Amino acid sequence: MRRLWLGSALIAISLTATAQTKAPEIAYDSTPNLLKMPEHLYLGEAAGVATNSKGNIFVYTRTGSTNSTMGGSRTFTHGGARLFEFTQNGAYIREIGQGLYGFDFAHTVRIDPKDNIWVVDEGSNMIIKFSPEGRVLMTMGRKPESITVGSPEAPAGGRGGPGRAGAGAPGDNFNRPTDVAWDAQGNIFVSDGYGNSRIAKFDKNGRYLKSWGSRGSGPSQFNIVHGIAVDAAGNVYAADRENHRIQVFDNDGNFKTQYTNVGRTMTICISQGPHQYLYSSNSNGAGDLDNGEIYRMELDGTILGQFGHAGKLLKEFGVAHEIDCHNPNEVFVGELTNWRVQKITLRP
Amino acid sequence: MYLGEAIGVAVNSKGHVFVYTRSQATRLFEFDQNGTYLREIGEGLYGFVFAHAVRIDPQDNIWAVDEGANMVIKFDPQGRVVMLLGRRPESVEGLPSTPPNNTPVPPAQKYIFNRPTDVAWDAAGNIFISDGYGNSRVVKYDKNGRYITEVGSKGSGPGQFNLPHSIAADAKGNIYVADRTNRRIQVFDNDLTFKAQYDQVGAPWALCITSGAHPYLYSSNSNPDNNNSEIGAVTGEIYKMELDGTILGKFGHAGKQLGEFSTVHEMDCRGGENQLLVSEITAWRVQKLTLHPGNANGAAK
User: Fold this and answer.
1) Is residue A17, in this structure, part of any structural domain at all?
2) Is A85 a domain residue?
3) B positions 117-176 inside 8 Å of A (CB)
């Protein structure tokens, strides 16, 4: 009798651990019509958003159409993504990288501590580092020369297919990479991604150091590693989206822990300052308007609160795809299906 | 600057004419009531892939239905994007190959369209979308774009569709669907429950309902765009009907001259009981029609 009682208590505990916990609601506002576009210029899907030290807003958007050649011995593709810079009040400043060879299918943009602009392009399989002035300083990965039409299979590092399950080749031949982050020494961490299932670490000069991960659901395995962030101590946080968890690694890629109670982890970000917070979005899918809340957490995984839900109105989110959180109470959200960026002011 | 296939046409409360055209890119133009060019809206827009229809709601918002992007895009009267329904397929998957005939259509999702065709609203602002070439359904959303219900599957029974190509709502909120390949108009109540069907007007490509105290339903039995002259000889007319399906008269026939029609694709009749704008696929133009009921012939301007 006593043993039976213990058994049901264990079941109850494990149910609590996997169920979605309803965290306290954080009050928040969203600035209406944040970004002011010039005449005849439109945002498309706001896949990437980031802010620099001055508060300027960078948006990496899927817009226009990718051009494919007809005729020729192979099919070549160009275009489909653009990078815009705005002031902190949303006034348009400029376009960066107009017509760039690596701009095919926007995924994320991040600003490093020196205000360099890093773009992650899922279509060209490239990560491109721009100086604050907008000059290309470093490239990682290589855009495939052409795409294969009619074949669903593509090699690792190629485009258009699921790729090999595994860690990919030792180097920067990405297969649909998703995000980039840095530690205090400037080491570069890339989540890679849809095709490969790994995190790759490079030194600040882009020299390959190591990578870890394979496809699966165990520790250090990934099922679409979709976002990445590094804390001040150099720990690496990975949004393991389809496994519905955040995995935490030390600076060398050793698995430390995982957080499994924040839904489908589309994008994560860690704020700056002496007390760092971790934000994670349980984004809705494009075919539904379910969930959509963003969690505010301690770095140890303790959930402090949540805000928002899926929808098309102001303060609602349509597939939040990247969040930026330089200041802990000012969160920028780039949305896929609402084609906009929201500036969220939290009042915790 | 040139029009391509004049796929969509609509008029706002000021009489301005909007044309959604398949040009080198799909483009949306605005003209004044006399046809003078005013501006382009949505240049290079991510959702402009292959034009299908444009409609203007009672608040003069501009709605574009794009069959290629699988999207319905709402612009405010100034031309800013204010709401989006559906999502363009991701290009990162590479060039899609054309599926072989009889490939099963994947199950429809609440917020994903498969070649949608048209949009309409009831007095409460609820949104009705005919969807379309791939899916065989009509979907109802609230004014904020939240899914409410849908009706339809592929077939020829009541509430089934074989290419729902155009849609209109009357003042009471009843929904009229041009079930093109089934050669009938189906009528539903506001909850999308089947009420009636009208099957004496050929293949309905385009529908519109006039505003005013006594509304009328127009339906075009457009000549097919396959340029078959034998079929073209017996199609192309537009019917004027009571909302209950009673046919009051018809006018027009297929042809390339003024007053003739080259595959009418969308009609707007907000201008009044006897004022129609029609866009034509194969003539690359929009015609403004004034009907003279009681005379034998209408006249085109």
Assistant:
1) no
2) yes
3) 144-147
Give, as one character, the DSSP assignment of residue A103. -
Range with the lowest mean pLDDT among B16-30, B88-102, B287-301?
A: B287-301
Place of tokens 């765009």: B225
Residue A291 belongs to domain with CATH number: 2.120.10.30
pTM for the structure as a whole: 0.92
Q: What is the pLDDT of residues A232-291, one digit of tens each?
A: 999 999 999 999 999 999 999 999 999 999 999 999 999 999 999 999 999 999 999 999
Where does the pLDDT of residue A166 fall: very low under 50, low under 70, confident under 90, or very high at 90 and above? low
Counting one residue from A and one from B, how many pairs have CB atoms under 8 Å apart?
88
**Tokens 């608040």 sit at which residue?**
B59
Asked if residue B276 belongs to a domain, the reply is no
**A311–B95: do the CB atoms touch at under 8 Å?**
no
Could you read off the pLDDT of A65-115 as tens digits, one per residue?
Answer: 888 888 888 888 899 999 999 999 999 999 999 999 999 999 999 999 999
Instruction: Mutate one of A77, A174, A312 to test the B interface: name it (highest B CB count within 10 A).
Output: A312
Q: Does B87 touch chain A (CB under 8 A)?
A: yes
Task: Tell me which residue in A42, A68, A147 faces B45 most closely, judged by beta carbons.
Answer: A42
User: Would an 8 Å CB–CB cutoff place B53 in contact with chain A?
Assistant: no
Q: Closest CB to A147: pick one of B94, B109, B147.
A: B94
DSSP one-letter string for B107-158: PPBTTB-SSEEEEEE-TT--EEEEE-SSS-EEEEE-TTS-EEEEE--BSSST
Q: Has residue B11 been placed in a domain? A: yes
Per-residue CA distances from B199 to B108, B140, B167, B170, B264 (Å): 27, 24, 16, 19, 19
ipTM passes above 0.95: no
Range of the domain at A221: 31-347
How many folded domains does chain A comprise? 1
Domain count, chain B: 1
> What tokens appear for B85 in the block?
């329904």
